[in-house]
Design a protein that fits this description.
heterodimer, A: mainly alpha, two-stranded antiparallel sheet, 13 helices, B: 74% helix, 0% strand
Chain lengths: 321, 383
């Protein structure tokens, strides 16, 4: 037990939590934007995978890992844009489109990699490199804190910066309040002259870009190659984090850190006699309970207010295909 | 507006009931035809997309398509894999169709399948039941387990208003981990080289078709009987039972359903649960039939396959086996294509994705309808 405590309080472990959190935080930050704009986005997984693949391929073929970053962003944006077109132009159900896009990304990336390199497992034969780690000049001198925060991967810092920017945008800026208005009640937003469609397009494309960057971290940071289905459900974890965080930026960040913590723990627990499956189950159970709690709170509030209209979060029907 | 008795009888005189019924029947038949044509056209477009992708990546599309189309029938073992996949995918499709009728999207099939597999496997390994019962009891238990576990998202949706997409995704993640924990810790015999349970006693296993027909059909088994049986049961449930009727009303207009005295919450929970029971059966089929024991990752990436099938079948239970057959054919054909033409089997996922996107966006449908509208408009303009 002592040894266990020693491991999880070590700076190395805490630093690894930040590393594991990075891709989830990217995707959740992005996903929250779509979520708030009222477009449920489960194509995060697809955006991440496409970003990871595009990043590694471009970095490998150009021998320049820096070009991989815009490629990853563009790859993610492409999936986001497809979701936007299908949902906003043709009125397709965003969730089913999301399922289709995830399928497209999973099949498409493996197919392209196999077609180009003849190797199904991934792009390791391309020999692309990873983006550098960054030593923060002053912070690294602080004991303990410096060891944790400094020397992280470039994109890890980027994830936290992007989270901060998007939180400020959503909570403080005009475009953020428009975004939330569109998500809360698009009719009302439209009536005061907000271009609902434009906002939603912006949201899904931004989501794709951020999730693509998260994928880029996987293939150009975490490791230096693209591997088949390497996102391994992180896009869905991001969705869980958004809901566990009560669909708020700060809550989402904390939830991402919780997921990162349990994932890092599950990796380390191999050495101890604690079943890793049960540990990695914790955040999902927490999300399930949190989801029920938030929904219950919202419906009971709506019932109290008795607004007459159907309260948000009330069981709503989807038109069968 | 109220009508007097006189006016009502005039209306009745002018209203030729039989002619109206005939007109409705003709219209419906036309609708079905247009829809079928639309779905077929969608498939053709998806295959064309695959063709373009193959050419773009520098592969010989002729060789690839030949392997894709003739491959599944070229060896009896491949036919066996086709039948085995067909059974599982049909059951998964049916499990999605039921809640979808009530407007609920069940993405929890994976979790329900794992639950069913675990329960069927655990019972078969630990109890020795008399022949017959040894097959039926685990299957019924698997369906019950799927039923119960699917009640959770249904209940959360109906009572708390919790998003069913997120709750089912979470349950999938939880159940898959729980499955892997229980399998590793309790069901894998000590000193086993891989994480897997013992093979089930032969009395608990679905008879292999190979033994019945004396042709090597791989792992295809008597579970295939579940395809016609469950398709019929689900059709009966949706079209000829009161729960199906209520589900349809809840699905098309929940407020109206409540106004009409339907307990919408109960209907939502029930449709989820029944769907879960069918997915649980799919799990039992994988354990008692296909694999003969519990394995890690037993579903082999079939998680979302049910939704893909339900969409191609346009949520019609009778079309689910047809759509499932098409997809299992493609899956087997894709593998043959990879071996023989060096074209990645993943092109099959791309084809499926294109079909899903086109059908959900109703792109082809809109095109067909516009053409029909134009044709209908022309004669009226002449009059």
């Amino acid at each position: 037990m002592n040894e266990f405590l020693h491991v999880i309080t070590s700076t190395l472990f805490v630093a690894s939590v930040l590393r594991v959190t990075t891709p989830i935080l990217f995707a959740a930050t992005g996903g929250l934007i779509s979520e708030l704009a009222g477009v449920p986005n489960i194509s995060l997984e697809g955006s991440m995978l496409t970003g990871a693949c595009a990043g590694a391929l471009v970095a490998g073929y150009t021998h320049n890992v820096w070009l991989g970053v815009p490629a990853a962003v563009l790859g993610g944006m492409f999936i986001g844009l497809l979701l936007g077109v299908m949902h906003l132009e043709f009125g397709a159900d965003p969730i089913i489109v999301g399922i289709g896009l995830n399928l497209l990304a999973s099949g498409g990336t493996t197919f392209v990699v196999f077609g180009l390199l003849g190797d199904k497992s991934g792009t390791s034969s391309l020999g692309s490199r990873a983006l550098p780690k960054l030593d923060l000049p002053l912070l690294s001198r602080i004991p303990v804190f410096g060891d944790i925060v400094s020397g992280q991967h470039l994109l890890t810092y980027a994830a936290f910066v992007m989270w901060g920017l998007s939180a400020v945008m959503v909570l403080r800026f005009r475009v953020g309040s428009h975004l939330r208005a569109v998500g809360e009640m698009d009719e009302a937003a439209r009536s005061i002259g907000i271009d609902v469609k434009r906002i939603r397009y912006g949201a899904v494309v931004a989501t794709g870009a951020l999730a693509g960057m998260g994928g880029g971290f996987l293939s150009m940071g975490y490791v230096s190659y693209f591997a088949r289905d390497m996102t391994a459900g992180r896009g869905f974890i991001a969705i869980a984090a958004i809901y566990l965080g009560g669909r708020r930026p700060v809550g989402t960040l904390l939830a991402c850190l919780l997921f990162g913590l349990t994932e890092a723990l599950a990796i380390r627990l191999g050495n101890f006699d604690i079943p890793s499956q049960l540990v990695s189950m914790i955040p999902y159970v927490a999300t399930l309970v949190g989801l029920g709690f938030f929904a219950w709170r919202e419906t009971s509030r709506a019932r109290r207010l008795a607004t007459g209209g159907a309260p948000r979060g009330e069981a709503s029907a989807r038109t069968p295909v | 507006m109220t009508l007097t008795t006189d006016e009502l009888s005039t209306v009745e005189q002018h209203y030729d009931r039989d002619a109206a019924r005939r007109a409705v029947a003709v219209e419906r038949r036309r609708g079905v035809l247009a829809e079928t044509a639309g779905v077929l056209l969608t498939i053709v477009i998806a295959l064309a997309v695959a063709l373009v992708v193959m050419v773009a990546i520098g592969k010989d599309p002729y060789e690839a398509f030949r392997a894709l189309i003739t491959g599944p029938l070229s060896r009896s073992t491949r036919v066996g894999r086709l039948l085995e996949d067909w059974t599982t995918i049909t059951l998964l499709g049916l499990s999605v169709v039921i809640p979808f009728r009530a407007g609920q999207l069940n993405v929890g099939a994976e979790g329900q399948l794992f639950t069913g597999a675990l329960v069927a496997g655990a019972i078969s390994v630990s109890w020795s039941l008399p022949p017959g019962l040894a097959i039926v009891v685990p299957m019924v238990a698997a369906a019950t387990a799927g039923f119960l576990v699917a009640c959770i998202p249904g209940w959360m949706k109906a009572r708390l208003g919790a998003n069913e997409l997120v709750s089912t995704l979470m349950l999938n993640a939880i159940i898959v981990r729980l499955y892997s924990y229980l399998l590793t810790e309790f069901l894998t015999p000590p000193r086993a080289t891989i994480v897997a349970s013992e093979y089930l006693p032969s009395a608990a296993r679905l008879p292999l078709l190979t033994d019945l027909f004396h042709v090597d059909l791989g792992r295809a088994n008597a579970g295939i009987l579940l395809v016609p049986v469950m398709t019929f049961v689900v059709w009966l449930l949706l079209r000829r039972s009161s729960i199906g009727f209520r589900a349809r009303i809840v699905g098309s207009n929940e407020a109206f359903a409540k106004y009409g005295g339907i307990d919408a919450k109960r209907v939502i929970v029930l449709t989820f649960a029944i769907g879960g029971a069918v997915a649980g059966l799919a799990g039992a089929h994988l354990v008692q039939g296909v694999n003969g024991r519990l394995l890690m990752g037993i579903s082999a990436g079939l998680g979302f396959e049910g939704i893909v099938v339900a969409i191609l079948a346009r949520n019609n239970p009778l079309m689910v086996p047809v759509a499932a057959f098409f997809y299992s054919y493609l899956r087997v054909g894709g593998d043959v294509m990879e071996q023989e033409a060096k074209v990645g089997t993943e092109i099959v996922y791309v084809i499926q994705a294109v079909v899903v996107l086109l059908i959900t966006a109703r792109l082809v449908q809109k095109l067909v309808e516009r053409r029909r509208a134009q044709r209908l408009r022309t004669p009226t303009a002449i009059q």
